Every structure is written in C-alpha cells, then in structure tokens.
Amino acid sequence: MHSQKRNTCGLTAARHQDGGIAQSVRGPEFNSRSRYKGCDDYTSQPLIFYNTYPVFTPIDAIMASVYDILLELPMFKGIGREHLPALLAKTHLDFKTVSPCSSLGTAGEDCSTVRCVLSGRFEKITKCIDGRLIVREKFTAPATIGLENLFGLDTTLRSDFRSLTECSMMEFPKMQLVSLLTGNEICLINMLNYLSAAAQRPSAAWRTKPTSDLIGNLQCLLAAVGASGRGSLFLESTSCPVAELLCEDIDISLRQEQDLLSMRLIEKEDARKWKITGTLKDIADFFSTNRPSE
Fold first, then answer.
1. Which 3 state secondary structure label does DSSP give 234?
2. Rounded Cα distance, 92 and 113, in Å
3. Under DSSP, is residue 38 helix (H, G, I), strand (E, B) or coil?
4. What is the 3-state secondary structure (H, E, C) of 190-209?
5. How confident is the model over 94-119, as pLDDT tens digits?
6. CA pair distance 269, 281, nearest whole angstrom
7. What's the pTM?
8. Whether the Cβ atoms of residue 34 and residue 7 lie closer than 8 Å to each other
C-alpha cells in the first residue's frame, strides 16, 4: 500500500512504506510552473511542489539531462532539442532504477512498452542451437530494448536482457509510440529505418552462396542475432568448442578459426568463449573472399 499525491503540474509522487518514491511524469510541461522543496536525492525523499513563478529547479535539470540522452536514441535522431519537450508533452513516461544483475526483459515476454535504458550497462542474451550456444551482446546506455518486437504477429521478446550495472530506465506504452510517430515525421522515418535495417540484416548474410563452413555459419549467426552492431559480441558454448558448434568438419573449423584469429576478427578466452572483435561487414568480406571453391 502507498499513498499518492498529484500536483496540478502533472508529476505524480507515490510514497511507499519503505520511504521510496516512485515517479511518473506526464510530459515536461511542469518544468516552468513547479518548484521543488526537499533534499537533492529526489528518488528517496518526499516531494513537495508549489505552483509559483517560473524557476529552474532540480527537476528541470534532471529533465534537461534526460532530453540530451533521448536525442542519442535511434527514434529521436535529428530532432531539434528545443522540439523534444513539446513532442513528449502528451507522453506518459515512467522512470525507474534497477540494480545490477536484474532482469530488464525475458525471452517469451510480451513486448508492450518502449524500454529505454538511459544510464548504465546491460546485456542481451540469446540462446541458440537448443541452448548449446549463447550469444551475448553488451551495451552501454543510452539504448532501447525490443523495438523490433513491438509490432507484428509475434510481439514477444526473443532474448533475455540483464543489467550489468545499476541502470536508469524510462518506459512508455507502445500505443503512445504510435501517437509519437504519427505526430512527427522525423521520428517516423527513424523508426522505419531502424526496422528496415533489422529486417535486412539476415538476408544480407545470404547474398553470396551459403556454405556449411565455420565462417559462413558465423556470418549468418551474427546477422540474425547480433543485430544492432552497437554492442560488444561474445559467443559461449555450453558443450564443446565454439568452432565445432559452427562447423562439424573439424579440419575446416580449426583452420578457419585460426584465420579469424590471425585477421583479429575474433579473440579467444578459451575454446568455448569467443569475443567478436571485427564488424559484421569485416566478417562478411572475409567470408566472401575465403569461402570454399565451388
């Protein structure tokens, strides 16, 4: 149980039994009309608002910082900073902080909200080959989670997402994203570009004749799973060397693994743990020039 007080400027402060404050901001229009009285740690202390004269407040500073971060996200690229407050004025934004090693999303979970990680580091964990191969993609904020899973016949997450450090998050319903897209052409184009890139990556891996060797399978795997190109990619095998999972022919897998190492496209912690150090394009180019003769 918690008591809740709402000020007339649109900011809700909910006081829980443990003394914490859950915040929900509906638009930034409160910035010029509210004054905060309390301590600097706004997430753990009572909030008292006075509707008075315009004044720059700690909450203003927080929202100003949030705007700068949001402008780095794919959907807001190219939008003028001065236009962002008006754009978000009718969007209900929920903010929260999660501890390290917390779940930010689970494979199979319905993706019904836009999740933005504003600060911290997190990882995307995708299980392949019946769980015998795990692809980890590590990100530093700002970043979004599950944009490509919001719409379509299947709106469930395909991967697990876990915080590596304390993370600050912002979340809002996907139907409010639809309103945002219909009201701003730049946001709409950004979203279409993002979804198009995600859809085109797997097909790009098959532009040359696919093979069953290690390099060909690695390229297809990363195009399908390591989709963003923004995070650091790691492959982990739970049963045998990574090279053997990607290619059953041991002679070919060992030779091509050494080629990838010599070209500095991968690093090996051990036979079951790889770090992908080359870009997806680097690996694709290497695949094109080193695939077996027909």
1. strand
2. 11
3. coil
4. HHHHHHHHHHHHHHHCCCCC
5. 999 999 999 999 999 999 999 999 99
6. 23
7. 0.73
8. yes
